[in-house]
Specification:
The complex is a heterodimer of chains A (309) and B (98). With 309 residues, chain A is an alpha+beta fold. Chain A has one domain: 2,3-Dihydroxybiphenyl 1,2-Dioxygenase, domain 1. Chain A has six helices and 17 strands. Chain A has an eight-stranded mixed beta sheet, covered by helices on one side. The radius of gyration of chain A is 24 Å and the shape is globular. Chain B has a domain of 25 residues. Chain B has one helix and one strand, in the order αβ. Chain B is elongated and about 90 Å long. The interface between A and B is large, with 114 and 73 residues. Strand 5 of chain A pairs antiparallel with strand 1 of chain B.
Chain lengths: 309, 98
């Protein structure tokens, strides 16, 4: 019988050598595979955790360069780029403190979608949060993932469709301090049914729920933890059928009017003209040049201390 | 016979080596593997309309001491309202670095 291996002494050895070379190439590729590394949320790391607090925001945009120019000029943010493989991400900083992230994602032809700021809420355990969210009727948009230095996060939609993320920060949560001008100061959920949405968020995050008296006939709800206001829940205004429930985040500014005018000069749009909100200061809603909405809010130290009249 | 043993030995060695490499790839991070992409590549459904906002449509935080109004804290069918004794919360007052 003729052997398939005419030279047992040399051919198998070459074969092994070749395969081992292939294995070595695979191994080195695995070791060198780019890892997406995000900076810690808090430096130096703290032991503070504030479940239910909005602790981060990521902008998903088709034009990261344009976004950097717009937000940099508008709020004085600077940026640190994170390039990993095909991922373009940039951390926005204000006076050296991280305030948010910008993530580039192309909009495919025919894809009729809306760039947006994604709101991150602090949780102690992403897995437990996922179970609670699903049990309360929410849906998974992006399953839990871990990022070195940042922690573990996942993206969900509440039962009415508003998308948000949860983050289990491995460096602790930011302190409960008053946001400086140029930092995120407030978040609001615009929902079709604030009552049932309040129940969802309360059951998932353990919020205290306050109904806020209003004179416009619509429902206004406040979500609170640690004795601090964390977010409001508002009914979408009339003819809400044309609108989609969503989270909206607000940046503190010294002058809403001046900032809105500046935003328009930079290519943004004013979606809601400045008007006086319940605390006595102005708010407005803008869209950046790519269409991502965000809010502006004036807040003075006196607003923190005075009672409503 | 020798050839058969050699081939088995080679196959065994390759299985061990590939298993080791697979272990390197899968076990590179904590909690089941480090992500090499970014999992938030979503966009919202298109279209935000903000008509209907204006005076009375408050979305911002209340000031500290904001009056909760009468009857607040009563049982609610959907959620558990804060106890009537609880005052309306507001934003932190402490600034960073103070």
């Amino acid at each position: 019988m003729t052997s398939r291996y005419p030279d047992h002494g040399t051919w198998p050895a070459r074969r092994i050598l070749g395969l081992l070379c292939g294995v070595a190439v695979l191994a080195s590729a695995a070791v060198a595979a780019p890892t997406f590394v995000l900076p810690p949320l808090v430096q130096p790391a703290s032991t503070e955790h504030h479940p239910g607090k909005v602790i981060w925001a990521d902008l998903v945009t088709p034009d990261i360069a344009g976004a950097k120019h717009f937000y940099g000029e508008l709020f004085g943010w600077t940026f640190t780029d994170v390039h990993t493989g095909a991922v373009d991400y940039s951390v926005a900083l204000l006076d050296g403190n991280p305030v948010g992230g910008l993530f580039q994602r192309a909009i495919r032809p025919g894809e009729h979608r809306q760039p947006a700021w994604l709101t991150f809420i602090s949780v102690r355990d992403v897995g437990a949060a996922e179970r609670d969210i699903l049990a309360q009727g929410g849906k998974v948009v992006a399953p839990p993932r871990s990022y070195p230095d940042r922690g573990r996060q996942a993206v969900f939609a509440d039962p009415q469709g508003a998308v948000f993320a949860v983050l289990q920060s491995s460096s602790g949560d930011p302190q409960d301090v008053l946001a400086a001008p140029g930092e995120w100061i407030w978040s609001s959920v615009l929902a079709r049914d604030p009552d049932t949405d309040a129940a969802f968020y309360q059951n998932v995050f353990g919020y205290e729920v306050f109904e806020i008296p209003s004179n416009d006939g619509s429902k206004h709800i406040l979500l609170s933890t640690d004795d601090y206001a964390r977010a409001s829940l508002n009914a979408l205004p009339a003819d809400a059928a044309k609108r989609h429930p969503h989270w909206l985040n607000f940046v503190r500014v010294d002058s809403v009017t001046a900032t809105a005018a500046r935003a328009e000069a930079l290519g943004g749009r004013v979606l809601v003209q400045p008007f006086t909100d319940r605390h006595g200061g102005l708010i407005a809603v803008l869209a950046d040049p790519a269409g991502a909405p965000f809010g502006l809010l004036e807040w003075t130290d006196a607003d923190s201390k005075q009672g409503a009249k | 016979m020798t050839s058969l043993m050699q081939r088995r030995w080679m196959h065994g060695l390759l299985v061990v080596v590939f298993a080791a490499v697979a272990g390197c790839v899968a076990g590179g991070g904590y909690d089941g593997g480090v992500d090499v992409g970014y999992g938030v590549d979503f966009y919202e459904p298109f279209g935000y309309e903000y008509g209907g906002w204006g005076p009375g449509y408050g979305v911002g935080p209340p000031r500290r001491g904001f009056d909760r109004g009468r009857g607040e804290g009563a049982p609610h069918p959907a959620y558990r309202p804060a106890a009537p004794s609880r005052s309306m919360p507001s934003l932190p007052t402490r600034s960073r670095g103070r």
